[in-house]
Amino acid sequence: MKLTFRWYGESDAITLDKIRQIPNMYSVVTAVYDVSVGEVWSEESIARLKQVTEESGLKFEVIESVPVHEDIKLGLPTRDKYIEAYKENIRRLGRAGVKCICYNFMPVFDWTRTQLDKVAADGSNSLVYYENQLEAMNPLNGELSLPGWDSSYKKEDLKHLFEQYEAVDEEKLFENLKYFLEAIIPVAEECDVKMAIHPDDPPWPIFGLPRIITNEKNIDRFLKLVDSPYNGLTFCVGSLGADKNNDLVKMVAKYTAMGRIHFMHIRNIKLVDGGFEETAHDQNYGSMDIIGIVKALVDNGFDGYVRPDHGRMIWGETGKPGYGLYDRALGASYLNGVFETVERLSK
Ligand SMILES: [Mn+2]
């Protein structure tokens, strides 16, 4: 496996100098943040990211994310120009040495939590999702401040978007995803860039909007939309694991053997009545079988990218929820230990 760490570019308080000191660190996971969704990333911005990353001794091989414009998900006639821009981004990133692009296909809202700083018994805090807190939120009343959702939408825009999505059910969303994949995967093949869709987080519909990358049946269907190794997965343990019906060890084994997992997000969550809480990465702190998942990867010859995912805030650190340094570094170190041990014992 190749260990990676998310880095939010040169404005990130967590610098490359710090990231490179985490044992076994191979590559950053980053993006160009200075353009709006749907636009082509400038060659200069990409080259700058590559340059500073490589000067620090790390690789520049994984992008998270190249976001997908809402018109593509909605299947509007305007989608074609955004798809052209998307293809151009794949070409530019491929030329810069990028090997893997993470993206998602969630309507309107990205990952959703109901509280970003739930304090645990040990004094750390983390992100949580409680169904009853979500039910109390209404994205259309104009007062929604969804935790972590830094919206550029005005109330009226959001209302219009919800109206447009009334015509999009799961089937239609699959259709729109297929149209998108049929256009971009041949480009990804040409450029040798693996596309890796991130599952929906949490893996069920929210606010009445459809979500489709949620379980084994739907992921099977997704992989067949365009049956190419370049049409693959970011397998996010914390996202798919929020649904207790998902057998993650089985899914990881199966999709690794198929050569379709290019990127792993590994973190732990604790399933509680009516929701889940993000915990330390370590096996015993949450409900995920982290060791079983790593074993399924190793046993099936996984050689893709791995990153620790959201961390808790510990030791008084403040900053971007889920993306502090300390607990993610502890997570990386824990994952190193689990991989090393499982690899050694499997020889
Ligand atoms: Mn993830």
Q: Could you say what the CATH architecture is? A: Alpha-Beta Barrel
The averaged pLDDT comes out at 94
The CATH class label is Alpha Beta
Tally of helical runs: 12
Low-confidence stretches are none
> What is the CATH H-level superfamily?
Divalent-metal-dependent TIM barrel enzymes
**Nearest-angstrom radius of gyration?**
19 Å
Q: What is the helix fraction of residues, given as a range?
A: 25-40%
> Based on CA inertia axes, which overall geometry fits?
globular
Query: How many structural domains?
Result: 1
The major beta sheet can be summarized as: 8 strands, parallel, barrel
Using the coordinates shown, work out and report the CATH topology. TIM Barrel
Strand percentage lies at 15-25%
SSE order, as H and E? EHEHEHHEEEHHHEHEHHEEEHEH
- Helix vs. strand class: alpha/beta
General description of the model:
The protein is 38% helix and 18% strand. By secondary structure, it is of the alpha/beta class. It has one domain: Divalent-metal-dependent TIM barrel enzymes (TIM Barrel), CATH 3.20.20.150. Helix 1 links the parallel strand 1 (2-6) and strand 2 (25-30). It is globular. The two termini are 16 Å apart. Residues 198, 236, 239, 265, 309 line the site of manganese (II) ion.
Question: What is the compact description of this entry?
Answer:
The chain is α/β, with parallel strands linked by helices. The protein has one domain (2-346): Alpha-Beta Barrel (TIM Barrel). It has twelve helices and twelve strands.
Topology, pairings included?
Elements: E1 2-6, H1 16-19, E2 25-30, H2 43-55, E3 59-64, H3 70-74, H4 79-95, E4 100-104, E5 115-119, E6 125-130, H5 131-135, H6 155-165, H7 170-191, E7 194-198, H8 216-225, E8 231-236, H9 237-240, H10 248-257, E9 261-266, E10 269-272, E11 275-278, H11 290-299, E12 305-308, H12 326-346
Parallel strand pairs: 1-2, 1-12, 2-3, 3-4, 4-7, 7-8, 8-9, 9-12
Antiparallel strand pairs: 5-6, 6-11, 10-11
Helix pairs in contact: 4-7, 10-11, 11-12
The structure holds manganese (II) ion (MN).
